[in-house]
Each structure stands twice: as C-alpha cells, then as structure tokens.
C-alpha cells in the first residue's frame, strides 16, 4: 500500500496557484480518470482498482470539481485504499441527485432539507448494485459520512460548497450515528458472530477438514488459509502476501513472516509464531506454488491463473473476492450447514474471530492476543471477550456462591464474606451481572479480577495476575492453568539462569502450582457440602 511519502510524490500541486492544473499519479487533475498504476505499491491492486473514474459526474462539472478536491485531500491524508473506499461512498450521491433533485448543479445548492432528503434516501431507498437489495448499514454510514466530510471540509478549505454548514454535523448525528436501526443491526451482527464461533465442534471439524484437504493435495489455497487464520489470527490480506521462505527459525521457535498496513500508514513486516499446523500448511503451499512461481518469477505462495485473460497468466490471489470465490465454494463442497440446513455463512474473518475467542478461552492474555492480531489498541481485542463474558454472566452467581470452589490469595476471605453477606441470593442472571459490573469484577481468560479502581490502589498483577491478591480462579480454568504450567516450565528450561526473566518464570511457576493444588484439593474434598457436582 501507499505511504504518506509516496502520496506526496503523486501530486505536483502549488497551493498558491490553485487554478493551475497539476499532476495526480499518471494523470492531471483536470482528467476524468486519475491513473495511479505505478505510483501505489500494492500487491493486490492493479488496473482499474488503481484508478479514480469521475465519468459519472461529468454532467455536473461543479460537483465533480469539489469531489476531485475531496479525493485529492483523502489521498494526501490517508492510504490509497481508504481514499478509494470513500470515493465509492460518493457515487450514491450523484445517483440521488439525478433521480430526485436534478436541478442541483453545485454543493452550494445542498441545503439542510437536501441533506435530510439524501440521508432518508440512503436509509430507505438506496439499492446495492451487487445484491439488488437495500444497502447495508455499513454502506449507508460510508455514503453519509463522505458527503458530511465534503460539506464541512469544503467550507473550511474554500471549495465550492455552502458556507452555512452548522446543521451538517447535527443532521448526521441524529439520522445516522444515533439511528436505532444501526444499533439493532450491530447487536444482531454480534449475536450472529458469537453463534458462529461458539460451536467448538464445528470449528474443530472445519480445521480438520482443511488439514485433510492439504494431506490429499486438494483446495490448497483455501484450506491453508483457513488453517493459518484459525491458528495465528492473521487477516486474509496478511495471509495472501506470504512468500517463499516466510517460515523462519528465531531463538529456536518457528515464526511466520508477512506484512501488514493496519498498524501504520506504511507497510511493515510482522512475525507470528507458527505451530505444526501452520508449518504443514505453508510447506504444502510452497509445493503447490513452485511451478507457478517459476513461470511467473514471483515469490508469492498464493498464486493462481487468471482464467478470463488470454494465456491464463499467473497472478497473486486477490483478497477482494476471497470469500465469494474461495471460502463459500469450499464450505459448500464439504456441505457445512447450520441448524436450519443452510450452508454456513462463514468468512475469513469468522476464522480470525474463532482464533481470538479460543485463544482467550485457552488462557492467553488480552495483551498477547492483541499483539498477535495486529490491533492498533487493546480496545479492538476486547470485542472478542464476549463469549467468556456470556459464560460467566450465565453462571456468575454460582461461581461466587458460598459453596463455590475458588482459589487465590484472598479466596478464604472472599468465601467468608460470601457466606456472611450472600449478595447474589435470589437475584436473576441479569441482576447478578449488573452487580458484577457495579463491583468492577473483570472477567479474565483464566479467572476473575476483584480489583476496584475506586480504591486508588495500583494494579499489582505481574501481567498474569496469578500472584495478585485481587485475583481468583475456578475449576473451569484448571486445564488452562495446567497447560500454562507446562509452558512456563518449558520456558524455564530454556531461560538464562539467574536473570530477571528466570526469576519471573519461577514466580509464575510457584503461583500456578499453588492454584492447581488448591483447586484439586477442593474438588477432591467430600465433606458436609460436596463439591463433586461443581459445574
């Protein structure tokens, strides 16, 4: 993808002479098509995808000029792909003008009433060219946002738009941002995503099927991508640029080397840990792509032939139609169906979601998963905690009942308080969950944190919380703690002796042994109140 330095080189523009024509990529500002082929370093974009075609706006030249200035501004400030997406959002505006308000010749004519009418058109009448159905909430938001930006930025930058834009943000907020429809759609989407990845047996079967395909040298491209995504959580556009030699051994561990543009404006290299499944998938990819690499001279592993071009030339697989051309046909071929008998509606992001969810349920920390998934901030990762939160919400009162099995430095004190106060007795699941949130009890991938920030006490956790007096855990996490103990002891065998890293590992080992022993002793105890039926 392009970076900011590359973007500056695309334009020969003198702000002191705004009416002088200037270069935009291979084209001039005055041209109807701007061609950026050769100016944008993108593995997946070429041809028409690296062009801005303003031909839909030529019958409204004053509107077209403002839109050009907006696209120019987007290219200066953002990545090329962002500018392209925003440009796609503008195209609906000209359709609206042509159909409903043909008398409008300039953005000077876009009054508050016109903007409201356009937003109502987006919400109720706009149709997707691909599906023939009403456009999605995401499509509506994108189209609404671009026109809002044009009006507000244009009034500041001196483009030919109305000077009175005080109403624009208010209309946008009321009709788009605070629209109840989008809130419901978001909740439905979250529920759907949760249902998709909550079926562990199905996810496991999909991974096993992909592995079997690789063993039989079938569906190499899609099967390998499913395995890589479920195992290390890469986005599909981070998987497809993998090259020969992407497996590297660093400090005794196998790593996958690829690139991303999600963390910075520039494309950067990233390294992710590779397990046996990932190594197997990449080795199969290298075998599959060898003849295609030799023919094309390219080093990529995800190569295929362009069937609709003469000679069927070799090309890097595009991520733009990946789900349509690869994932859905593969799911159909293997007859993966939902409870209603329909082919499951999984995408590459579903497998990334599955990675995050099961890594959390397996005990990985939010920080580690955030780093592996290339999230810009940890806030993006917390979205994937909902499965664990739902599990705890449904049985939280049971977890902290007076007869519960819990371990941690303050577990005896907590149990004593629970017997005395019985705070959750007679409460519904939702009432209990509200109490949990009010008490600031946080769900962790390996237990619960009782730390309350209002006490003005610093967090005492060492990154794993195990030795913190505010940490408690329950038997549902016992296998996680045992697996973590194995990993810690494995790392201890490799760690330099008498160093700070070894010291931290020994502390973690001590805490884990204590927690495991405490939980097992309580589970084995048969007294007046048996814990044998702990759920």
Quaternary state of the chains: single chain
Shape: globular
The proportion of strand residues reads 5-15%
Which stretches are low in confidence, meaning pLDDT under 50 for 5 or more residues running?
A: 1-9, 526-535
**What is the radius of gyration computed over CA atoms, rounded to a whole number of angstroms?**
28 Å
- Count of strand segments: 12
- Number of helical stretches of at least 4 residues: 20
Main sheet characteristics: 3 strands, antiparallel
Q: What is the helix content?
A: 40-55%
Q: Overall mean pLDDT score?
A: 81
Coarse structural class = mainly alpha
Q: How would you write the strand order of the largest sheet?
A: 5-6-7
Tally of domains: 3
User: N-to-C terminal Cα separation, in Å?
Assistant: 50 Å
What does this molecule look like?
- Mean pLDDT is 81; it is low at 1-9 and 526-535.
- The longest helix is centred in the last third of the chain and has 25 residues, at 500-524.
- The chain has helices at residues 4-9, 61-77, 80-100, 112-124, 137-157, 168-177, 180-198, 200-215, 220-232, 236-239, 276-296, 322-333, 348-361, 366-372, 379-382, 386-399, 411-421, 429-438, 478-494, 500-524, and strands at residues 23-24, 27-28, 33-35, 51-53, 247-250, 253-260, 268-273, 303-305, 314-316, 442-444, 447-449, 471-472.
- α7 crosses α13 (348-361) and α9 (220-232) crosses α11 (276-296).
- With 535 residues, it is mainly alpha-helical.
- Helices cover 51% and strands 8% of the residues.
- The protein folds into three domains: 4-178, no CATH class; 190-361, Orthogonal Bundle (hpI Integrase, Chain A); 382-524, no CATH class.
């Amino acid at each position: 993808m392009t970076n900011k330095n590359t973007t500056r080189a695309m334009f020969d523009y003198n702000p002191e002479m705004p009416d002088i024509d200037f270069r935009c990529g291979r084209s001039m500002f005055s041209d109807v098509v701007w061609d950026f082929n050769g100016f944008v370093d993108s593995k997946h974009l070429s041809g028409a995808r690296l062009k801005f075609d303003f031909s839909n706006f030529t019958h409204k030249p004053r509107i077209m000029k403002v839109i050009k200035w907006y696209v120019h501004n987007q290219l200066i400030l953002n990545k090329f792909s962002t500018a392209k997406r925003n440009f796609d959002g503008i195209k609906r505006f000209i359709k609206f003008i042509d159909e409903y308000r043909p008398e409008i010749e300039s953005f000077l004519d876009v009054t508050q009433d016109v903007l409201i009418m356009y937003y109502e058109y987006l919400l109720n009448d706009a149709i997707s060219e691909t599906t023939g159905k009403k456009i999605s909430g995401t499509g509506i938001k994108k189209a609404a946002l671009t026109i809002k930006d044009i009006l507000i930025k244009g009034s500041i930058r001196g483009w030919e738009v109305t000077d009175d834009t005080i109403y624009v943000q208010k209309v946008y907020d009321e009709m788009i941002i605070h629209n109840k429809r989008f809130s419901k759609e978001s909740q439905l989407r979250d529920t759907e995503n949760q249902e998709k990845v909550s079926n562990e047996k199905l996810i496991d079967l999909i991974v096993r099927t992909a592995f079997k395909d690789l063993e039989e040298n079938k569906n190499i491209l899609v099967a390998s991508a499913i395995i890589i995504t479920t195992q290390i959580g890469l986005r599909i556009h981070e998987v497809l640029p993998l090259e020969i030699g992407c497996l590297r051994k660093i400090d005794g561990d196998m790593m996958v080397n690829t690139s991303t543009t999600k963390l910075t404006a520039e494309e950067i290299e990233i390294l992710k840990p590779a397990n046996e499944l990932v190594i197997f998938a990449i080795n199969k990819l290298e075998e599959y792509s060898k003849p295609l690499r030799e023919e094309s001279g390219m080093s990529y592993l995800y190569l295929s032939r362009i069937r609709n071009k003469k000679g069927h030339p070799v090309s890097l697989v595009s991520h733009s139609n990946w789900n349509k051309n690869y994932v859905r046909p593969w799911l159909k071929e293997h007859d993966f169906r939902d409870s209603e008998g329909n082919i499951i509606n999984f995408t590459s992001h579903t497998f990334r979601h599955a990675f995050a969810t099961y890594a959390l349920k397996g005990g990985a920390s939010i920080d580690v998963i955030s780093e592996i998934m290339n999230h810009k901030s940890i806030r993006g990762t917390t979205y994937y905690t909902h499965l664990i939160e739902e599990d705890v919400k449904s049985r939280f009162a049971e977890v902290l009942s007076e007869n519960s099995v819990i371990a941690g430095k303050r577990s005896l004190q907590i149990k004593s308080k629970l017997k005395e106060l019985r705070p959750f007795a007679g409460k519904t699941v939702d009432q209990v969950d509200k109490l949990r949130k009010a008490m600031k009890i946080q769900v962790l991938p390996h237990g619960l944190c009782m730390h309350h920030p209002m006490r003005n006490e610093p967090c005492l956790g060492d990154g794993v919380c195990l030795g913190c007096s505010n940490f408690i855990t329950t038997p549902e996490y016992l296998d996680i703690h045992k697996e973590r103990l194995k990993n810690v002891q494995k790392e201890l065998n490799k760690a330099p002796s008498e160093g700070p890293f070894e010291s931290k590992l020994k502390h973690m080992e001590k805490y884990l042994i204590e927690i495991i022993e405490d939980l097992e002793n309580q589970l084995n105890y048969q007294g007046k109140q048996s814990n044998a039926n702990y759920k």
